TrEMBL record:
Main location: cytoplasm
Gene, per the UniProt record: pckA
Cofactor binding summary note: Binds 1 Mn(2+) ion per subunit.
Residues that coordinate or bind Mn(2+): 209, 228, 265
Protein name: Phosphoenolpyruvate carboxykinase (ATP)
Family recorded in the similarity comment: Belongs to the phosphoenolpyruvate carboxykinase (ATP) family.
Function summary: Involved in the gluconeogenesis. Catalyzes the conversion of oxaloacetate (OAA) to phosphoenolpyruvate (PEP) through direct phosphoryl transfer between the nucleoside triphosphate and OAA.
Catalytic activity entry: oxaloacetate + ATP = phosphoenolpyruvate + ADP + CO2
Listed GO biological process terms: gluconeogenesis
Amino acid sequence: MEFKKEFSQIIENHGQVMNNLTRSETIEAAVKRKEALVTANGCLATWTPPESTGRAPLDTLIVKRPETESNIDWDSPNNLPVDPETFEMLWADALAVMKAKDTVFVTDRVVGADSSYALPVQLLTDRALTALFTLNMFRPVPDDIESSIFAKKDFKLLVLPYDKIDISRYEGRLRKLSNGKTSDMAIVMDFEKRAGLVYGSAYGGSVKKLIFTVMNYYLPLENILPIHCSANENDKMELSLFLGLSGTGKTTLSAVANRALLGDDEHGWSNNGIANFENGCYAKLIDLNPEKEPEIFRAVFHKDDYRSHGAIVENAMMYPDGTFDLFDDRLTPNSRASYPLTFLSNIKASSTGNHPKTIVFLTADANGVLPPVSRLNPAQAMLWFLMGYTSKLAGTETGIVDPVSTFSRFFGQPFMPCLPHIYSDMLGKKMKEHNTVVYLINTGWSGGPYGVGSRMDITLTRAMVDAALDGKLENVKYKMDRIFHLDVPVFCPGIPSDILTPENTWKDKNAYKERAIKLSLEFSDYFDKAYGNKNIDDDVRRQCPGK
Ligand SMILES: Nc1ncnc2c1ncn2[C@@H]1O[C@H](COP(=O)(O)OP(=O)(O)O)[C@@H](O)[C@H]1O
Ligand SMILES: C=C(OP(=O)(O)O)C(=O)O
Ligand SMILES: [Mn+2]
């Protein structure tokens, strides 16, 4: 099947193609077609069905083909294969559905702020709101796109957020649900054919994470390291990366007035330095407090004419007068807003910058036992990068209700399809080459686990981040956390010293010790399971808690 040809034929032959409308035309189309409501401040509100309020990892599939399969780690539970024939059927079905729509929307954007590796992405969808999402999240095609290694290798993206797969034809081909039925949703990537399909998921994150995963497959083959991180820089152009799995604080902690933001989720590290992939941010709205997160609040809720606003609010509670209650989680704890970077007060317009001076690994430990800040030497950094520990919080993936401890390598395993050594070798080499300093910051629980203690206050976390980035933790005294093999500062400006040591914050010291040892053994078991036979250097292995 000629995937691209059939896709292009619809664009050429459909009677009603909205081809690259302007941003305000796209906003007006979304409102006119009742895909979204205009809110009191002018942004757009939409609500998706319950199966579409987060990502759907079990329905996210990679087409297994001889040309690409040897680069992919099929041992990873996140890399779920689908056969080429099934994908052909899905693509053909989706195109047939698209053909029958009264109107279709096309956007031509790129992903990647460094033109030398910007990936052109052409979207075809039946939804104006999906088109708007790509205007917010993907970048305009730059004038020098011809210089990109991907200039002639564009990616086609077909998105039908609200249609469902005709499951009668896919029994045995797609996932069986617990009720015995076949899943009617699929998010599929074909790296070889350079085609992606979102069929039946209306979560904006499905679109952006699909494209992120595609970049994470192509870039290492070009010797560029893709990273699941946010990035910002100070006025000396000293750049910091914030790596972390969903909910750990990439978006929150990087959007600050005193550092210019390059991007909030996905960056490439090439010989040129760091470049954001995207054009916008996708921020969580639950409990968003305008005092603690003023930048994000203003970006979404500033007042403007709706035709020039275009921030998209997904699944937040809105009252009939068009105002929101962001503390109401009845719909989902994963309410989101998508907005262009330019809505923030301090951004780096080019979205590109130097090699990172500092890297912060973020974890949200719901056990409440990891120190809130610690410094990692190169072997420790490699170990924590491989382990990618955090607690998955409710919402971002369907099915997560209470926090679950999880190890997700490179703080983004679901989006890193290649064999793991490809990413870890590159990071180790680049960190050494550029003398990058690494800190681990726990944005999770203190004073006890989830349910007993409380989440670290954002203001305190911000003070720890500032201290780390400003070099104020370089010359203080450290002590060793023997359970987790971490160097913990005994002093940090702006922070009461007793919270730097988790044990001090727990009333029941035995309970602390028990929980900490239990988690360290989970680290050790997971290391053996995932990396036992993977020839990891002994000095990295020794840094694993529980070893
Ligand atoms: N100490 C803290 N540091 C960072 N975020 C926190 C903290 N306490 C609570 N939060 C909340 O946790 C969430 C972090 O999510 P976000 O920044 O979107 O993470 P990511 O971008 O890594 O998925 C936000 O909703 C934020 O308000
Ligand atoms: C959009 C997502 O990213 P993050 O939570 O890292 O912002 C997601 O994981 O669905
Ligand atoms: Mn984020």
